[in-house]
Amino acid sequence: MNIITIDKIEEAPKHRNKKILLILKNYTYDEGSVKLIAEKKKACFLIDLDRIINSKGLQRALELSRIRTFLGLCNRFGAFYAFRSTNRTAEEMIHMGFLLGLNRGQGKFAVKMLEHY
Description:
Layout: E1 3-6, E2 21-24, H1 31-40, E3 44-48, H2 50-54, H3 57-77, E4 80-84, H4 90-99, H5 104-113
Parallel strand pairs: 1-2, 2-3, 3-4
């Protein structure tokens, strides 16, 4: 499993031709980069749910908002994304997807995508 951590989303299109997981440090709103990743259908964004779980207060609210907006972009353009959490079951991750604006099918898809990479 190849995982690459990226500081800015603008760096993501460099890896669009590889079958890898991309972790973003900052979920900024950039339609162009998400669209380029979605065109190739190879790279997958890895959403680390532990970042939400381990944060508190205003930081948690900001993380939820940014990830929710980012997942909306991914769904609009068809970019792949996967969920990861160290000590949560698949059902708990699906329910966290509800908090992020996903439906049950999208949550299941996000949990199963991790197995393909």
